[in-house]
Amino acid sequence: MKLIESHRKEIPKSSWVWNIQSKELSLGLTFLKLFGEDGDLVPENFKGEVLKAFFSAEVSEGIPFYRKTHHVINGSEYFVEWVGEAIERNGEGGISKMAGYAELASSPDDFTLSLNEEALFFTRLMDNIRESVYFKDLESRFIKINKACAEKFGLDDPSDIIGKTDFDFFEDEHARPAFNDEQEIIKTEKPIFNKIEKEVYADDSSQVTWASTSKMPLYDGNGVLIGTYGITRDITEEQIAKKKLKESDEMFQRLSEHVPGFFYQYKFNKDGTSCFPFASKGIKDIYELEPADVKNNVDGIRSRIHPEDRERFKNSLKKAVESKSEWNCDYRVQLPQKGTRWLRGNATLEVEKDNSILGYGYIKDITKEKEAEEELKDRNELFTKLSEQAPGFLYLHRVDAKEKVSFPFVSEGIREVLELEPEDLRSSIKPLLRLVHKEDIARVMKSITWSVKTQQEWSCEYRIILPRKGLRWVRGRANPELQADGSVLSSGFLSDITREKSISELNDRLRKQFESVLDNVPNLIFVKDLDGKYLMANKATREFFGLSEEEIIGKKDIDLGVPEQLAKGYHAADVKVVKTGETLFIPEIKSMDSSGNEVYHQTIKVPFQQEGSDDPAVLAVVTDISQRKQKEMQLNETLDIVGEQNKRLLNFAHIVSHNLRNHAGNISMLLSLFDVEESEEEKEELLGYLKTASERLNVSIEDLNEIIDQQYKTEKDLKELKPAEMIKKVKEILISDILSYNIQFEENIDDELTIEYNPAYLESITLNLISNAIKYRDPDKKAKVSIDLYEKNGHPFLEVSDNGLGIDLDKHGDKLFGMYKTFHGNENSKGIGLFITKNQIESLGGSIDVESTPGKGTTFKIRLT
Amino acid sequence: MSKTKSVCIIDDDKVYTFGVKKIIKSHLPENDVTTFENGKKALDGIQEMMESGAGLPDLILLDIDMPEMNGWDFLKEFDVIRSKAEKEVEIFVISSRVDTNTEDLYKIEWDEKVSDFIKKPVQVAALKKILS
Fold it and tell me: Is residue A87 scored above 70 in pLDDT?
């Protein structure tokens, strides 16, 4: 705004007085002069037009009166400006009379106030606005400020501001950029509009206000730049409100991310379409969609809804929209990942100004609840059907998370069995417990609690006393299941077994007779429970321990002097019997009798059902086999060598067959990899491994064949043989190796030596020794093999020496004859040949020794018989 | 899908280790596999891994019958390393020695140290289950 001196101040003015109450307007005598020579022509309705303008003006004490009217007189347009102020008040303090002057303005655009008027008007205006207005000189010192600004700075008199700067009122944080802005305006003469500023006050830095500021260059009457002026609006509240809105938005976003389920805002447009302006991330879980998928339309969700529920879903929505109230619906969806799920949706609807409807709602997955509900329904149906035929009664027993007990279902049979009505047990177990025999109540309650707690099957037989029928035996069985809501639901069956029980009493008598039989057998017969306590022990058992019945019953093995190790073993066997429910046969246990003699027992253990108790127990029948064992041991000593050999062979066969399985497994693994492999290079590599694996398989099969052969060859097939001839024969077999490796033989052979021997064994032994000597030759030396055959001390000896690689016997001696536990079918194994050789020699009563030095050679010395 | 695991195969059967490594690479490529041909080499290798800061493997597939140091001896030695480290290491014994007769025996002795005993030849499905 530029204060420009009016060029029209010479224009004549005329005074006017407006009586507001009587609506009378008096114009001064000079008024008509405003219209020049045509003053006479001012029409009658002129006053009416002016009054109309006056009526629409706001009349108040503080604001200078200003109005501009427009008139057409004789085809010419006139603009009249009316400026004035209140001159008279009525009794209530309202304005009753205004007065001022009027003057002619040539056009609406060209109007200016006289300098005085302008200044007055401007000052009033400035002081009456809420925004701060201020003028500053070229050094950003205040020249003038309005009232609002003075209030803001805490000044009583606005003129106190003169000479001060922003730095007197604000912290640098605000004052510095404000100063810079002003200097920039002075330099460039470019205004700044609506800049948001944070104002920090110098006297109280905790006081922060937000402001929107416009600043402009200030010119004097001659158009010379003399400073800046500006207007600042406080927007602190606006800013706080905005910030809060943003925070609450974020908070909601965060909240909705952590709450399971899906929050949304749903919009039904007037054109029948709908969309989700807001969808929380939960939509991923619920619908397996992204919020963006439903931003503009709901097709994605519509296709997810289960076909059977679509109609119902649509109707529920329609109903909610029509009544403009709440929407609630349980429905199924079919999701690509999770399949069919049950959802529960609800929303509150609001009608917007444009008649569209907004819904705010939440959808959660209730599949688990639904499943439990369905299951309960199914079970109830099944129960009702079953209970019509079953003797006894069926029931559902529920213990909720707060341990409140109820029977959601009890079949009719309860009238017969317990003489109660089904409703009696609906909400309490007490009517049933009241019937239970005093001696059984603790046991019954304990077993039920245990079953509910562990969710293990409940099974219990107990006595009840009925008002009419008196003492009865009942048997209860129930299967507890933990439900999704933390409660335990047991489906059970309770039946009257009094008749069965009376039969078992008869059995009791028979049992007594049986016990007397038990006492007359030589076997140890006893029953122990799972704690290891003796429940029954026959005479033989008592004699074995040298204790009376009282000293045994209720005690454990360890109390009876059984060594801990053995007692542990016995107990483990009992546990196994109970666990498997099968008979256990223990062929042999070594222990001590009461006099400290070593005894051997054979034991049979069977699961044992105790009378009147559901706790498992084990019956053991123990036979003393010490005498048999003694004989067996004597026999074993003679069979030891043979047995040892057999064991070794068996062990070997095991290892080879394991190897077979490994190789076959490897081949199948490689083949399956080969099938899916695409790269030629990889296939090539696989083929390489496949070849290795199949070669090893071949070796293992050959080994196995050799063992099988060995088992079928009987060592008893003895003939008169000359080993010298056999040596010759073997050298012929190996002729190609001998020639190609240029083996030199040194022989010292008794040609006439005759032995009684198995020919196949002799061939195998000789062949193995000589071929080994060739196989493990030293490639850097000329290979020499010497063979000695001689008789010494009545025994035939065969010695084969070489100058080959030799073996480090300290390291590998025990492995040399294949005595190692593992057998590796790889290149460094040379076990099988020597292993069989040793077995063959020993089976015919001979022995084999080896001497070897690495790098020098090896000598095998065999005593043939 | 499980996160990256470092898997260590200790077995002297090169064809087997090659195959298993390949199965792991093709089905669960994010796993990182190291192989050792016996217990001794595995111990040295694991020591080295610890010293280099790579840490213990997550999973060990261990054979029993191996030259130099067999699986049981390895387990005994490894226990010392394991008790010092805070990391949990799952060990599966995979051997042709495992069968219905021996499994119970092994379990009695080794159950605390070994997650499971698996009979060789091992099935691809069983391997995947272990790795998941």
Answer: yes
Q: Are A27 and A16 in contact (CB under 8 A)?
A: yes
Q: Cα distance from B11 to chain A (closest Cα, Å)?
A: 12
Quick one: which of A445, A728, A245, A662 has its CA closest to B17?
A: A662
d(CA A86, CA A91): 14
**Per-residue confidence (pLDDT) for residue A506, from 0 to 100:** 64
CA-CA distance, A141 to A503, in Å (whole number)? 119
Question: Which residues in chain A have Cβ-Cβ distances shorter than 8 Å to B12?
Answer: 824, 826
Does A109 score more than 80 pLDDT? no
Q: What is the pLDDT of residues A182-194, one digit of tens each?
A: 999 999 888 888 8
- State the pLDDT at residue A333: 92
User: Residue B42 sits in a domain of what CATH number?
Assistant: 3.40.50.2300
Nearest CA in chain B to A692: B15
Contact flag A673-B122 (C-beta cutoff 8 Å): no
Residue A268's DSSP bridge partners are: A274, A357
Q: What is the CATH number of domain A245-370?
A: 3.30.450.20
Hey, how many other C-beta atoms are within 10 angstroms of the C-beta on A65? 19
Average pLDDT (A32-56) is: 72
Contact A673 B22 (CB under 8 A): yes
Element (H, E) at A405: strand A405-410
The hierarchical CATH code for the domain A129-234 is 3.30.450.20
Half-sphere exposure of B75 (CA within 13 A, CB side): 21
For A163, the token pair is 């000479």
**Superfamily assignment of A398-453+461-496 in CATH?**
PAS domain (3.30.450.20)
Mutate: best of A666, A690, A698, partner B, most B CBs <10 A = A666
Separation of alpha carbons A551 and A546, rounded Å? 10
**What local confidence, expressed as pLDDT, does residue A110 receive?**
46
Q: Is the pLDDT of residue B109 over 80?
A: no
pLDDT in tens, B50-103: 888 778 888 899 988 787 788 888 988 888 888 877 778 889 988 877 776 677
Are B13 and A666 an interchain contact pair (Cβ–Cβ within 8 Å)?
A: yes
For chain B, list residues whose CB is within 8 angstroms of any CB belonging to chain A: 12-16, 18-20, 22-23, 26, 65-67, 70, 96-97, 120-122, 124
Please determine, looking at this structure, whether the domain spanning A502-624 carries the CATH number 3.40.190.10: no
| Residue ranges of domains in chain A | 13-121, 129-234, 245-370, 398-453+461-496, 502-624, 631-692, 713-863
Compute the distance between CA of residue A629 and CA of residue A588 in angstroms, rounded to an integer. 9
How far off is chain B from A732, nearest CA to CA, in Å? 37
User: Quick check: A857 pLDDT over 70?
Assistant: yes
State ipTM: 0.77
**What residues are paired with A225 via a beta bridge?**
A219
C-beta atoms surrounding A645 within 10 Å: 15
pLDDT at A723: 92
Distance CA A22, CA A169 (A): 52
| Cross-strand pairs, A285 | none
Q: What is the pLDDT of residue B23?
A: 83
CA distance B128 to A167: 74
Angstrom distances, CA of residue B56 to CA of A351, A586, B87, B121: 64, 44, 7, 26
Partners of A436 in beta bridges: A464
Q: Cβ distance A90 to A96 under 8 Å? A: yes
pLDDT of residue A62: 65
